[in-house]
Amino acid sequence: MRLLQKTNRAYFLISGMVFIIAGVVFYFVISFFFKDQLNEKLFHDIKNITRSIKKNGTLPYYYPFIDIKEVPAQPEQSFKIIDTLIFNAFEKREIPFRQISLIRVINGKEYFIAARDTLLEEDDLLEVIAIVTGSVFILLLVSLYFINRKLSLKLWQPFYNTLDEIKEFSYDKPGFKLSSDSQLYEFTELNKTLEKLTQKVISDYQSLKRFTEDASHEIQTPLAVIQSKLETLMQYPGLKKEQAELINSAYVYTLRISKLTKTLLLLTKIANDQFPEKKAINLSELLSEKIKMFEDHILEKSLTLNKEIKPECILETNFFLTESLVINLIGNAVKHNINSGIINIKLDKNHLEISNSGEPLPVKASKLFDRFYKTNKSSDSPGLGLSIVREICRLNKWDVNYLYEDNLHKVEVNF
Question: Which of 187, 260, 271, 309 could disulfide-pair with 182, CB 3.0 to 4.6 Å?
């Protein structure tokens, strides 16, 4: 949910509650003041009627608003206020009235005097207040919505500009600077903080990149020297068997270290997006070519290879990374297969699927793509093949999934 929608929803909810409370208060206030004014009018009417009887000796009659009649002798009664219903012949229904009455001795006679006036009917009063309050509420909400929307978009425009620029940020492009400017203190501070942060990210990235490249170079150089020396030692005449085995073992481990260093360097470069060059690649041809690389290994393990490769599957991506992905997937299917097992390779324009026979994984499938994970601890593989596959897929925004069914390990890449 957008921030503007959330604030508008809060405004509408609070405004609605305020208007409901205000409507109730308004109803009681109007009702109170109306009845108070009506009482004053009726008191005034009683005084005028009394004065008129004393002066003229006549009894004014205007039913139902004025009701005067002579009554038997009884004590005088002071003002009595009641609400009553009187039938209206014209409207053919009972109408609420406010009545003030008293018994007064005038000119030696006792009279019942009552002054009445119609009350506002509660239903009508509630209806009027509801219509007025509802109309004002709707008008206010509509006005508030458009004013808040226009004002918010204007106030938040620097934020959206900053957001768009941050989306274009790349840590391999030094000199990044936000061009968004705002007179609001909060956004100005946000831009300053983001600029410091991005500069720190760029600086750290450049330092890590240099360290990785320098470390790889410095490691590879002495490894190459060691391998050369070991190769020379293995050619010495008169070596004993035990000595030759020790030298050969050391040579194999230097090869493994060299391979591991190159693989870790490749993972670092992929993570840092150092393969920006992209071009159209015929994945069908590339896949067929790399399958031939593993023909000897396939024959050695007596594997059955099933291929369903659609022609002309073109991808816009980096060639080196795509080649690494294909080699790792095929090599993984061959290396972790069983003797006389099966390899299925399927390719179309939307996905690549490579499956191989084998026993179920001893751990959760989610660990399969972790670095240095190996199902066989005695394997000389560093356990980085599928990690490279995952990083390449992440970089290209492809989906990679693993599934085990029908005694087959399946790795699927969706383009």
Answer: 187
